[in-house]
Amino acid sequence: MKINYHFHSGVSVESGGDLYIFDYYRKGFDPCELALFKNVYVFASHNHGDHFDRSILGWNQYKGDINYIFSHDISNFDVPASVMNPGDVLKINDIEVTALDSTDEGVAFLVNTPELTLFHAGDLNWWHWEGEPEEYNLGMKEKYKREINKLRGEHIDVAFIPVDKRLEDSMYYSIDYLMATADVKTVCPLHFWGDWKYIEKVKDELKNREYYNRIYFYGR
Asked: Beta 155-162 vs 183-190: how paired, if at all?
């Protein structure tokens, strides 16, 4: 298995001759490489421009049988794609994809492959914003926990989860709850716009967490 960080929440995983690309945005990947893989799965968790870069719709010129898997809120695309709502289960080739609901837009993806299980949260996050009404933040907490609780009993080899600096003191609520709830071998931070100085801060602030050795910082 090889994990590649592209930008913001865009990542890919190479495993068993296949490629899984999630929420590609703006840069960090050469689509000419697509032809090197047996199967290519391209996921987009929701329609926000920083998670759904429309350039991916042209990648089938490099590999004609790409498996596109999109959230239900994405529209106006002219490629064959599987569209998923929260709770949907999709089987393609020898993989199974389950869609969880998001606390923002779209869905999160749980992907079971013959070699490993991946979880990409998209914008499923514990969005606790200072200045928002207590009722809003409580509702966000409850919805996030409800969705992550669905991962109990799953062994997840790699989980990609937002750790957003705009949330300030609450930026780690999501990763803390995920790691306390699910059986996660490796967790990777997302949603940081390629700000490696921020990732150094994350490394320092999480160093005393018991799950610290299971965090992958993309080689940094």
From this structure: parallel
